[in-house]
């Protein structure tokens, strides 16, 4: 055999190897071991059902850092499946990324105009609390019920050319998103609408109409089925042509979701440029169920709990246990079903990723709305999901995962807006809470005592505190020591009148902008956006509670009954002044005299006080902690105190 012939043979063999679907023996064995006859039938006919499946095992180290191992079953980028609504997921990420580059908040109203054939205007959104469309509202609808119009508006805001360029730069050359979900020609889909971002009567950003000038490679024909109905409902006796449709391989969709849920797990160049609050927002609405949303509000007879949760739950409209959250995106169209998901079981400390697609179209006719979703598709996702969840429940892990970031992001979903001032009074737990704005004189002492006593605490600090250069080393120390760092407003505004509490002293816009400042200041320290917020002066009313909840946050406050919050007072304040011994006595008296003691308490102390106070209560912190430990209290952070499952 000549050298040239041998080289050619090697190239042909390599090409053939690349064309083979990837299947790991572990996946094949696990599925075959547990599969029902129906699932065995599906797996035995790969040409008919075109199943692709990725299982991602996650193992944590002692510092809770995740490591990922992917297992594949019949995964092949060369086999086309219509991604349908799966393309909405990367557009949600890219829309937030673009907003960050423009310096625009995701809640800022976005108005859409028209400038080309087929385009439509948007001036109102009745599903939003304020009646106005925004990127945040569109993303909510995309993850809650896979809303098509919401996707179209993100497509128009980002533009197909930017979509292509951004995804290509992140390592997704095979992803192609070139269509809205509304009947349009290819030329119409190349043109995008003008959009405007407004605040009141002011336009803060104006984006003109644009046209996509990229040339796409449509050289590979993609045909599906044996017949199809065209847009005029005429039966065409040949396969449907998907050559110029959207495309998104399963591996790429899985990696995109992983890059958002676990950004540190992918190279920096592959991450979406998102803020900590963007991550918190995405986690919340990826996992939220339709009944847990008030704005938008859904008819739950149509949009039931598992409407967009294919794995384990959609078949039979299954109910999802409260300790399980599924962070995912699904797509369904033309007989193709796809789900890319991350499971977090808070109670059992189980986590894994699962991604799959299947084609269920027995008669081979597309656009006839006769697909076996209910008979074969959703049962497939239920059974496969149950197999891997069952495997994960019994799998030994080197370290149990701390899933607090995901539990916190979804806390309070579906609950009415309330201020939480105390946790479970039946459990012997409490949280020591510190607030800070302009003073931090007790910071280093507090940090040292907490470390000595091995106690985690919660620190609610203002934007001013986070921005003060002299406080940066303390913030870094508190963060490195594992304490919970959260917000206390941007500039320590007084929200409502001291006497007439119902009288607001700030507008909603002022409240939101001030709180956004607080979160931006935290982000600059690399602090994940917290779910819990403690208002300045520990003073608020029902409007502040509702505004906080509308941002997907939870307002908390100190537990009343002791005088620990009076540690800011100084002698010149007269009768309001409380010495440290008096404060300590109020704590011990409450503990001794109440049946539930300090169970569920949020005990508030200030991280620093006015120099005119000489008798610093924080100097008694170790004495306080030893007293509480002697009374058998578990001292925890606020998220752990309020957790329903930890």
From TrEMBL:
NodB homology domain residues: 428-636
Signal peptide coordinates: 1-19
PROSITE patterns for this protein: NODB
Keywords on record: Hydrolase, Metal-binding, Signal
InterPro entries: Beta-lactam/transpept-like, Beta-lactam_cat, Glyco_hydro/deAcase_b/a-brl, NODB_dom, Polysacc_deacetylase_ArnD
GO terms of biological process kind: beta-lactam antibiotic catabolic process; carbohydrate metabolic process
Pfam families found in the cross-reference section: Beta-lactamase2, Polysacc_deac_1
GO molecular function terms listed in the Swiss-Prot or TrEMBL record: beta-lactamase activity; metal ion binding
Keyword Membrane: no
GO cellular component: membrane
Full protein name: NodB homology domain-containing protein
